[in-house]
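Example 9 (inverse folding). The structure is encoded as follows.
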């Protein structure tokens, strides 16, 4: 095509658009909603990532951090820190019980304790109520140390400022409520609300003793321009085998950053599903628009315009309209987060400044442009192939002709670019491919469903004698118009996303309600000293309301080497080597142990260290019998040979260790014991009261409280996902309305013919209603099947849980689909019923 032809096509396209955009409302809304959803998610994600990067030092508590498990830094490690840092702050974190009152009336609650020194915080500011300095709040008054506490915990225990409570054997005075700690995000998941005290006061309370479960963090304030890469390499080189963990301000909160990245990518993929739904609306809108331009296209053909020129005319129009829709979506996706920035920020654990994110907007625009091209080109291509005589009558059946190999190759290239873009930009290859593959498969099945529905409707219409309304509805469904396909595709895909989320949510709630009472213990007791485990076990086993007690020695160790090589190089980023892990010892296999390979050591074995490793984790890492594992325990390296693998089920909520060693290998290492207690619900409070009164140093973790915190996090994720799915469903409703509106001309003609043949309005209305309800029910039925399949895949493969089909939400989806299409069909049936047949038939003639 020449430049002159392109100029002519552009001029014609511009003049045609002077008539307005009324025929492209659905096109613009579909594109705007899809792009807006992706842009909105990307804008919020970019704001959080930017805040984490800019406030890395504040979130971490310093420019760098060196952490150790169950021990304080050695003289050599402290000397290294002092030689490179201009300020150091030591922070100790552990869990314990807050006790208010005495005797039977005492109240107890789990808390996450942060013990600090005079230098804390190096960066940022602790905000208290009343607004006083932290060090003043932690100072002694009347020889009693001060403490600050999370308001949630204080309210739960009925504590006011000035009240006294106990931690371990020490008494503390509540000096203020803790409103904000700058480094709270870096701590990650917490089992209980925060309490801050001084380290020296915590020692005096008997909570930091050999074998206690605690972590130490040394925050470093470095000189400006310090080379973090070089400093990290030197620290890890000098203290490679001491269990050192290094973090710096470049990734001050890596756990949160990883969660934000993955959750944001997942929501973007859900947004792509919404764009796919919108794509159906785009194709429907383009087809409908071309039907209204039949006379214009016919005139152009009659005047000698070539198919390529006509195609260019409407390509220019669609490109311009797509640009408008994309820009509107970008404005919506960026504007709403900025407008509601304070509300969004109040729900985030880190202060964020939501502003324009060019990268996120560019990604959303790319997806919008590719989707518009993918779904609009096919219907546009039909303008080249149709003969002028056919155009003057109607687009007719020829509009379904194959567009040609050239355009098919272009469509394939656009689809490939969309897949590659989603895969690379999401950073989650398999999830991206699975999502896009699932969407493509769902669209294919829904298209086949629409075709099958037409075939079935055609056959049923022949036998539905005596039921005129039903026969008319079935005949309309079986007609060659695109309305049935558009409704099934758009509504079906939107309902599929909603059905999948409903199945996953119902299964998670069901698993908590169903499995917890049967398999989970009532309490985890930790920090039990070796001389306390005997009396405690005797007390618990003698209690008639205690059904089962399990206990095991507990240490924590960091896997540093595998067969003499760096563990990270061998196992990659596997969770077992990512931090410290639980470690126990046992002379004989504990009751219920099932070995899958190898043999347990003899009970009196005192030779070189041997280890039994969890089977599933060993297979994931690639371990085999005879491999050597080096574990750093309290700064001491222990190399053990794997002599057996065993099954470890972490889903029961009971005691489970990845590694177990022979007792002689850990002889002399300070450690504590843990115990799980299964008891009747009515006895839980009494057991906690009695054990905590006699042994105040032990910490009780109520399993149901932990599950509630996890469930709360899952509900937050479900809400975010439901919003994204809601946008997808809203897009589907727009497409549904567009399809119904596009079929308005056909309905008017159909109603006119039926009225001429003597049909009453009520009969015509019933036929329209049945047509809509049957189509919606078909879309809902496919959505249930695909939603159940997606739910099963996520539950069993991603979450590694059991899946059970949840019928209530499933059949609610079917009913919702039928009701939605019914309402839309009835709304768009009012005008056809009100038009006089004579006017319609004269115009048609």
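The amino acid assigned to each position is listed next.
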């Amino acid at each position: 095509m020449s430049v002159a032809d392109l100029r002519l096509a552009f001029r014609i396209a511009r003049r045609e658009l002077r008539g307005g955009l009324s025929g492209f409302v659905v096109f613009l809304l579909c594109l705007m909603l899809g792009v807006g959803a992706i842009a909105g998610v990307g804008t919020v994600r970019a704001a959080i990532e930017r805040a984490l990067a800019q406030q890395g030092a504040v979130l971490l508590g310093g420019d760098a951090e060196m952490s150790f498990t169950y021990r304080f830094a050695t003289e050599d490690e402290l000397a290294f820190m002092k030689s490179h840092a201009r300020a150091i702050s030591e922070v100790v974190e552990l869990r314990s019980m807050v006790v208010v009152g005495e005797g039977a009336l005492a109240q107890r609650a789990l808390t996450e304790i942060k013990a600090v020194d005079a230098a804390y915080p190096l960066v940022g500011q602790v905000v208290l109520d009343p607004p006083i300095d932290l060090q003043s709040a932690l100072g002694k008054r009347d020889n009693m140390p001060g403490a600050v506490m999370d308001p949630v915990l204080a309210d739960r225990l009925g504590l006011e400022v000035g009240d006294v409570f106990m931690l371990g054997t020490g008494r503390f005075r509540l000096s203020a409520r803790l409103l904000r700690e700058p480094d709270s995000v870096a701590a990650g998941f917490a089992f209980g609300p925060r309490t801050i005290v001084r380290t020296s006061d915590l020692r005096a309370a008997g909570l930091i003793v050999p074998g206690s479960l605690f972590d130490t963090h040394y925050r470093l304030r470095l000189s400006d321009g310090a080379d973090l890469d070089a400093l990290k390499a030197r620290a890890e080189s000098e203290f490679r085998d001491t269990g050192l963990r290094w973090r710096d301000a470049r990734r001050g909160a890596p756990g949160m950053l990883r969660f934000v990245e993955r959750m944001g990518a997942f929501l973007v993929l859900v947004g792509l599903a919404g764009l796919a739904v919108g794509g159906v609306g785009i194709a429907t809108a383009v087809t409908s628009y071309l039907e209204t331009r039949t006379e214009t296209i016919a005139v152009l053909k009659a005047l000698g315009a070539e198919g390529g020129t006509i195609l260019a005319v409407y390509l220019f129009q669609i490109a311009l309209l797509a640009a408008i829709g994309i820009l509107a979506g970008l404005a919506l996706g960026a504007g709403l987060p900025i407008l509601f920035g304070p509300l969004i920020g109040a729900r985030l654990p880190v202060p964020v400044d939501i502003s324009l994110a060019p990268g996120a907007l560019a990604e959303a625009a790319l997806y919008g442009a590719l989707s518009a091209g993918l779904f609009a080109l096919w219907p546009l291509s039909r303008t080249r192939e149709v003969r002028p005589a056919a155009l003057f009558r109607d687009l007719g059946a020829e509009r379904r002709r194959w567009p040609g190999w050239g355009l098919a190759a272009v469509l394939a290239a656009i689809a490939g670019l969309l897949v590659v873009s989603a895969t690379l930009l999401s950073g989650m290859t398999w999830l991206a491919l699975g999502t896009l593959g699932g969407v493509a498969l769902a669209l294919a099945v829904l298209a086949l469903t629409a075709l099958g529905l037409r075939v079935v409707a055609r056959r049923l219409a022949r036998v539905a004698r005596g039921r005129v309304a039903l026969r008319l509805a079935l005949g309309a469904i079986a007609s060659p118009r695109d309305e049935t396909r558009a409704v099934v595709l758009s509504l079906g895909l939107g309902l599929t996303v909603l059905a999948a989320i409903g199945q996953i949510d119902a299964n998670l709630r069901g698993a908590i309600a169903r499995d917890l009472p049967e398999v989970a213990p009532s309490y985890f007791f930790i920090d039990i000293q070796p001389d306390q485990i005997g009396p405690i076990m005797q007390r618990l086993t003698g209690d008639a309301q205690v059904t089962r007690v399990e206990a095991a020695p507990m240490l924590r160790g960091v896997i540093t080497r595998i067969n003499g090589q760096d563990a990270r190089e061998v196992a990659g980023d596997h969770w077992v080597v990512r931090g410290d892990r639980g470690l126990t010892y046992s002379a004989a296999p504990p009751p219920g142990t099932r070995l899958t390979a190898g043999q347990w050591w003899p009970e009196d074995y005192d030779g070189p260290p041997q280890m039994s490793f969890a089977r599933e984790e060993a297979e994931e890492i690639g371990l085999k019998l005879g491999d050597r594992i080096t574990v750093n325990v309290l700064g001491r390296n222990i190399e053990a040979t794997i002599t057996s693998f065993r099954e470890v089920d972490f889903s029961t909520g009971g005691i489970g260790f990845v590694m177990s060693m022979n007792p002689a290998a850990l002889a002399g290492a300070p450690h504590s014991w843990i115990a799980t207690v299964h008891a009747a619900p009515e006895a839980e409070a009494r057991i906690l009261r009695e054990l905590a009164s006699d042994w105040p140093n032990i910490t009780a973790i109520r399993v149901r409280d932990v599950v509630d915190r996890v469930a709360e996090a899952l509900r937050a994720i479900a809400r975010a996902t439901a919003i994204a799915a809601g946008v997808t469903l809203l897009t589907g409703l727009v497409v549904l309305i567009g399809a119904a509106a596009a079929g308005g001309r056909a309905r008017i003609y159909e109603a006119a013919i039926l009225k001429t043949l003597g049909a009453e309005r009520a009969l015509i209305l019933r036929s329209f209603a049945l047509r809509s309800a049957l189509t919606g029910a078909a879309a809902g039925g496919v959505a249930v099947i695909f939603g159940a399949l997606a739910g099963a895949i996520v539950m069993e493969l991603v979450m590694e849980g059991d899946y059970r089909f949840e019928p209530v939400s499933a059949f609610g989806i079917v009913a919702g689909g039928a009701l939605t299409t019914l309402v839309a069909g009835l709304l768009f049936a009012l005008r056809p019923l009100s038009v006089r047949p004579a006017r319609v038939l004269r115009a048609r003639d």
